[in-house]
Specification:
By secondary structure, the protein is α/β, with parallel strands linked by helices. The chain contains 6 helices and 7 strands. β2, α2 (57-74) and β3 form a beta-alpha-beta unit.
């Protein structure tokens, strides 16, 4: 299920294209640094406004699963999965069910670092992004405890105490939208030339072509860095400004 000799990073997103837009540069960068990466996308994005010619939700979902796979290939993601939860409806789901699902995936992949959206839902403030944050945050805390979902613990599946939890954040807002109160950036990751890879990965989402130019404009304005907020860490104490999500992480 996982390679025990490698450092591992898991990213939890809501929709196909989030992996590129919010985490793409860092996913590609950490692959280059020898980190095994995993993206869990909660929905196939079947409620999107831009439909890419799909005749119904099922067709759009199938199309977007393929686009997600293509984007993850560009970002050299080691393990990429789109789950089957309903796009636009994550706030209506049973909390235990989704957190249990994510907890099991954490216990199987055994990341040292977990990255997701912040509870505000990132610059778009999308409710699904907020819910991805809530589910992933609880899964982060519960995956390490043997009294949470104990029925999962048998054979090779053991509790996994992840060392760090990060929320993606930004220092800009989108025009014409309600203001979003984002968490402060405590880690700034220089993604260098992977800005181009990230834009290329976003453009693997052919059905979302009407968003390409707006995305590229903002990605270039943001430049060659991605910002994160350290939300939890096994090493408690004052926060230091970081330039590496794996700073201080041990390989176990
Ligand atoms: Zn999204």
């Amino acid at each position: 299920m996982y390679n025990p000799s490698m450092r591992r990073m898991m990213v939890v997103t809501a929709h196909p294209d989030d992996e590129a837009s919010s985490f793409g540069g860092s996913l590609r960068l950490y692959h280059q640094r020898g980190v095994e990466t995993c993206v869990i996308c909660l929905t196939p994005g079947q409620a999107a406004s831009y439909r890419g010619g799909a005749r119904n939700d099922q067709e759009l979902g199938a199309m977007r699963r393929e686009e997600f796979a293509a984007a993850c290939k560009i970002l050299k993601v080691s393990l990429a999965a789109v789950l089957d939860y309903p796009d636009g409806q994550l706030h209506r789901l049973d909390l235990q069910r989704v957190v249990s699902d994510l907890t099991l995936r954490i216990r199987e992949f055994r990341p040292q670092v977990l990255v997701t959206f912040d509870p505000a839902g990132g610059v778009t403030g999308h409710t699904d992004h907020s819910m991805a944050s809530v589910f992933a945050t609880l899964a982060f805390h519960w995956a390490g405890r043997n009294n949470r979902f104990p029925d999962q613990l048998s054979g090779s599946v053991a509790p996994q105490r992840i060392q760090k939890l990060y929320y993606a954040t930004a220092d800009f807002s989108l025009p014409g939208r309600q203001p979003i109160t984002l968490p402060p950036a405590t880690a700034i990751i220089q993604i260098g030339q992977h800005l181009e890879t990230k834009i290329e990965a976003f453009k693997a989402h052919t059905s979302q072509q009407p968003l390409w130019s707006l995305f590229e404009e903002y990605a270039r304005k943001r430049g060659d860095c991605e910002m994160f907020h350290l939300a939890a860490s096994v090493k408690a104490g004052p926060v230091e400004q970081e330039s590496d999500l794996f700073a201080g992480v041990s390989e176990d």
